[in-house]
Amino acid sequence: MIDFPLIEKVLRLDERHKVFVDRVRGIEDIPSDHDFSFHFSAKDNLCTSEFQATAGSKILQGYRPPFDATAVRRLREAGGFLLGKTNMDEFGFGTFSTNSAFGVPKNPFDLERSCGGSSGGAAAAACLLEDHLALGVSTGGSISCPASFCGVVGFTPTYGRVSRWGLIDYANSLDKIGLLSRSAKDVRKYLPFISGPDARDPTSLAQPSMDLDEKVRSIAIPEEAMPSSESEMGKAFLSAMEKLENDLDLRVEKVSLKALKYALPAYYILATSEASTNLARYCGMRFGVLNEETDEHFNEFFSKTRSACFGKEAKRRILLGTFSRMVGFRDRYYMKALAVRELINHEYGRVFQDHDLILTPTMPFISPRFDEIARMRPVEMYEADYLTVPANLGGLPHVSVPCGYASGMPMGMQFVAPHWREGRLLTISQEWEEIFQYRFPEVG
Amino acid sequence: MDKEIVRKVARIARLDLSEEELEEFSLDLEEILSSFSALDEAEVSKEHPFNPVEIRDKLREDSVCREVDAAVLRELMKTYDDWVRGPRLS
Hints:
The complex is a heterodimer.
Chain A: H1 4-17, E1 20-23, E2 38-43, H2 70-77, E3 80-86, H3 120-128, E4 132-138, H4 144-150, E5 153-156, E6 176-181, H5 184-194, E7 218-222, H6 232-246, E8 251-255, H7 260-278, H8 298-309, H9 312-324, H10 331-352, E9 357-361, H11 370-374, H12 378-383, H13 389-393, E10 398-406, E11 409-416, H14 422-435
Parallel strand pairs in A: 2-3, 2-4, 7-8, 7-9
Antiparallel strand pairs in A: 1-3, 4-6, 5-6, 5-10, 9-11, 10-11
Chain B: H1 3-12, H2 19-35, H3 70-76
């Protein structure tokens, strides 16, 4: 129901949790001649015609796209009302949503803690609003991580399942549009709407159809990803493993996935290489912030806007990506990373011959406090993604679901399926929420 | 990483960095790349597809259509008498 109390709640929660970059202003923004059946939000790197699309970057401030991203258009056609654009790390560059030019979203369970990133605002919206569907985007774990920190279901489909048309690219061979919600039932209901071939995104054209009711019988746990049994995450994860075995009668077995250790460097090299080329288009001439000093030489003209508007992490990733592609370093970094992606997909394929799904914790810890994040080195932040990156690198579908609570904060576990087998993830996540009670914070 | 390499990379990427930023990023990149050294030992084949799943081209017949009104794009770029404004080339 899209009514005055809902809009009031959105405004109130946004004031406290800084969920949106742009959103509805009041009841007057709801067309009276429409009968909407649900409400949704879109991460701010998805283009929509009635709001700004900044991707969390100052360089795109004020940019109002003249079209809707395919995923947004399809949800509107399914009867959805778009509440607003959710906050995120600039261009998706981050694990804690602290790299946005438009404020930092605050965790629904604790205002002193992060929502996770980079789809932090999306996860917060999914947690704070009942029956809400949030469109998120994952490049290296940007749906799973915030889903884990905010205690919601975060679903990332196979690379190419959902058209990327209208998405502000981070890394074209890695970006995937997905869904976050309080319940896997909503994901099951709306995933078919946003999926399917789209002539505007050639990578969406080769996809097979989706079987939504695939059975799950066995789960593999990579030893390399097992948390310490003494840690909060370890205890929650072990208890979830037992529950899957005993209550759902699944075969749960440990396996070895040795190539996982190569995933993190390979991912960061590919992601930043692609990002550094994608971000070349932002130069003060075409979108968002426009440089008025046209008398300048073009090198200075472009550099001035880019240097003034890109945040620190964006600059860091542009430098890393540009370096990885440079003559003399390209074979050692970029080409090697491409080959490692192939190696990792081969290893996953070997495990999937005997098991339906692979399970790991989603993040190694509960959401950190902002003062803890401020003390982390960039490399430590990158390393925090080591559990979510491998499946993303391989373009494999995955889902993060809540699996425990410690210090009042949620923790998540992540199931990974073979390419195009999203149905297994929908089955397991629905069965799991029948036997494990999710908690949501009391919000006014 | 050597500060001069970072300076060169920044120039290629059209970023003006202050001396302080150069110092900071050269330390960061040094740390990041040294943590990536595990990649050197990975035994890989010569295969290196650019996408994680197989992408097949599908061709269609050409057809005339207009997706976005060009006037709207010109408006976004603040064109002047339909001329795109840009910097000097020399």
